[in-house]
Structure formats: C-alpha cells, structure tokens
C-alpha cells in the first residue's frame, strides 16, 4: 500500500559481555500517512532500536520493513537516498551541529542533495519561520539556543528534504512540560496538516493524547494499545 509503513516480524539482537540481547523481538507495526503513531515504553525496551531499523540506521537480523511500497531490507535498496529523501529524524539530544547557525543546520541536508543555494536558503528560512524561529534566531549558533529552540530547529532540519516519514526519538525528553507540549503539537500538525507519517517513541504516556495509533513496547516486544478519542 502506498500510504502504509509496515514492519513485519522484525528482530534485532546485539552481543554483549553477558551474551546476546534481543533488542527487537518479532515486531509487527503499521503506521500511515496523515497519522501520528506513538510507541511508549521504558528505557531499554527496544523502542529506539526499532526506530533506527525503520530509519535504516540499523538493519534487522530478520523480518521486513516496507515504507510506502519500498522494501528497505532488500539487498539492493538505496539506503543513502532513503535516509536523505524519505525520512526525517528528530532526536532527544537534538543532534545539531553546535558551531553552525540555525539556518546553516537546516540548509545542510539540502546541500547534500545538491539543491541550489538560493533554494536552500529560501526553504530553510520558510521552515524555521514556520517553527517560530525568527530571523534573529536563525543567525544564532545552535549552542546559544534554548532546548525548545534547538528542538524546533531540529524539526525544521528533519523537514528540509520534504520526507514522507518523521521519526521522533524521545522528542520531549530534554524539555520542560510546556515546551514539550509545543513540540508535540508541531509534530502532530505535520501529520494532520502536511500528511506526514509521524512516528514518535517515548516514555511519556502524555503524548498518547495526540496518537491515532499507539503501541506499548517492553523487552523488545510490541503490543497494540487502545487510543481513546
């Protein structure tokens, strides 16, 4: 299906000193464009590993991941283009380049795609303004910004190449509750208004308020949760 992201029986294990740890254990998941899917679970439950599998930062040991008709686990899949064009990442620690300005951080993914400098600048300004980052802040170095400002810049960067999927890993983990709500509302808006497939992993069950679909993850296993409207 062209509007469906589907994970089928995905597993991922790691070797540690004490033996093998199964971070993701036979997971099935579905998420759709225009909707927010939330996975809740404690630290160490495997939810970040699952997000990395979907984003192709890690490869599953077994299983299949289909993203809008594209099987990203097939041997000849172009994962570099997939990461650059199809998915946008939002991380708990923001992962901005601290020596660059907000504008430069958002421009960077477009520069890697060979987009013209004029279009890079225009789109970066537009995205930052949409996230509430004014012209003054756009010129500020990332290391001089507040946590909320950094996360809004990170969301703008995730949108730089207009991806279909936004993957958010504990996006409110380093924010106070009021700022966290702003960030969650922005992410929900990307699904509702822009038609993005937004997948959020978090330990904060309050984020379930914006979920269309929800799962709980524990010990590498996933189960569906009821979402009350």
Unreliable stretches covering 5 or more consecutive residues? none
Global geometry: globular
Q: What is the mean predicted local confidence, pLDDT?
A: 94
As for the number of domains, it is: 1
- Level-1 CATH class name: Alpha Beta
Largest β sheet strand count, sense and barrel closure: 6 strands, mixed
CATH topology, anyone?
Answer: Rossmann fold
Count of DSSP-assigned helices: 7
CA-based gyration radius: 17 Å
Q: Give a count of the beta strands, DSSP E runs of length 2 or more.
A: 10
Strand order of the largest sheet: 6-7-8-3-9-10
**Element pattern in H and E:** EEEHEEHEHHHHEHEEE
CATH superfamily: P-loop containing nucleotide triphosphate hydrolases
Based on secondary structure, the structural category is alpha/beta
Q: What percent of residues adopt helix (DSSP H or I)?
A: 25-40%
CATH architecture: 3-Layer(aba) Sandwich
Give the CA-CA distance, first to last residue. 26 Å
Features:
single chain, 229 residues, alpha/beta, Rossmann fold, six-stranded mixed β-sheet, four-stranded antiparallel β-sheet, globular
Characterize the structure shown.
The protein has 229 residues and is an alpha/beta fold. The chain has a single domain (4-225), classed as 3-Layer(aba) Sandwich (Rossmann fold), CATH 3.40.50.300. It contains 7 helices and 10 strands. It has helices spanning 47-54, 79-86, 102-112, 117-130, 135-138, 147-158, 177-192; strands spanning 4-16, 19-32, 36-40, 62-67, 70-71, 87-90, 165-169, 197-202, 213-218, 221-225. The chain has a 6-stranded mixed beta sheet, with helices on both faces. A 4-stranded antiparallel beta sheet has the order 2-1-4-5, covered by helices on one side. It is globular.
